[in-house]
Amino acid sequence: MPNCAVTVRNLFVQFGSFYAVKDVSFSVRRGEIFGFLGANGAGKTTTIRVLCGLIVPTSGDVTIDSEHFIKGKESYIKQKVGYMSQKFTLYDDLSIEENLDFTAAIRQIPAHIYSLRKKELFEFIGFDKRQDVIVADLPGGQKQEIALIASILHDPKIVFLDEPTAGVAPASRMKFWNLVKKLSQTGKTIFVTTHYMDEAENCNRIALMRHGELIALDTPENLKRNTYQKQIYLLTPKDKNCQKLLVNQSQEYFSMFEPYGQHFHAIVRDDIDDEEMISEVADICHIKEIEPSLEDVFVKLVEEGVTK
Ligand SMILES: Nc1ncnc2c1ncn2[C@@H]1O[C@H](COP(=O)(O)OP(=O)(O)OP(=O)(O)O)[C@@H](O)[C@H]1O
Ligand SMILES: [Mg+2]
Fold first, then answer.
1. Residue 52 C-alpha to ligand 2 middle, in angstroms?
2. Fold for domain 4-219?
3. DSSP string, 78-118
4. I need a surface site. Which of 46, 47, 85, 226 has the fewest CB within 10 A?
5. pLDDT higher than 60, residue 189
6. How far is CA 131 from CA 100, 219, 244, in A?
7. Quick one: fold of 229-291?
8. Cα of 266 to ligand 2 centre, how many Å?
9. Ligand 1 pocket: which of 14, 15, 196, 302 to mutate (most atoms <8 Å of CB)?
10. Is the confidence at residue 76, as pLDDT, over 90?
11. What is the pLDDT of residue 1?
């Protein structure tokens, strides 16, 4: 499909007798921010490693920028993609500049292009400090921003970001996502994994993996609209005592009852009318009808293993 940056058809990746990716199919449109979500071990990084030409799939068909993945021709893919890996981003004991020089050398970027590109990318992330700072001395957020520009130094069409904000402070996470959005506006396709649901809201579409399988794929809005057939309530106990009472009664009234800070997200059991629940618990808590959050959606989909 010409308007697709990535297509994956019936992808399987096997390690010994274990399948890390099982019959996964999806496509990523050019220019979209595509979120790839799932619990630890769901198969996200393994899929990314295939799409970056780092491992050969057991079976399945993959295209990157309309070209088929062919064993032995992985270097073609490597030119098209930028990869910010989950475990390793930069050499801690090298300076910012040394890290970028090293990446430019590996990518065989000609010196005059590298120098222009570096300037452009420092401007892009708003970095105007010394480049001889050792990476280990950078704050987490800034390190990830430098890692981002290292991954796009060769100007790839598709950028894979594997948990780029893991362990980064909230304000820096937001700044990083502003860069991701800005990058997407320049026409790059972004394929990103995250465990943070607030970040997932920024994606045009989200794929959800569970035990190596793709169990949902849609826009955040559609996932929220379509996953629940029933109303979700936000319950706020009036005090500590009321909270205990509510928790004790939860199984009697609710099929879902999840704590959210001081509140609870709840769905009434099928055999009980919503009005009945409201009249029973109105004395002990405030009740508000709410739209499901992405977190609600994922809890439900992952628990049920709903098929796309
Ligand atoms: N080279 C390998 N050899 C054997 N098993 C592997 C290998 N790489 C990954 N796995 C296994 O495949 C499964 C999927 O791993 P993967 O790293 O793709 O998950 P993930 O979704 O990225 O998880 P996380 O959120 O923790 O990063 C895990 O059970 C993992 O242990
Ligand atoms: Mg991973």
1. 14
2. Rossmann fold (3.40.50)
3. HHHEEEE-SS--S-TTSBHHHHHHHHHHHTT--HHHHHHHH
4. 226
5. yes
6. 10, 39, 56
7. Alpha-Beta Plaits (3.30.70)
8. 31
9. 15
10. no
11. 67
Name the residue with the closest Cα to ligand 1, atom 11.
20
Where do the CATH 3.40.50.300 domains begin and end in the chain? 4-219
Q: What is the pLDDT of residue 234?
A: 96
Average pLDDT of 262-288? 95
Share of the chain above pLDDT 90, in %: 85
Our answer on whether the CB atom of 43 is closer than 6 Å to any ligand 1 atom is yes
Q: Give the pLDDT score at 307.
A: 45
DSSP helix/strand/coil, 14:
strand
* Pairwise CA distance, residues 26 & 86, whole Å: 22
The most confident of the ranges 51-55, 97-101, 254-258 is 97-101
CA of 233 to the centre of ligand 2 (A): 33
Q: What residues does CATH 3.30.70 cover in the chain?
A: 229-291
Query: Is the minimum distance from the CB of 45 to ligand 1 under 6 angstroms?
Result: yes
**pLDDT over 50 (residue 29):** yes
Report which residue type is found at 156: P
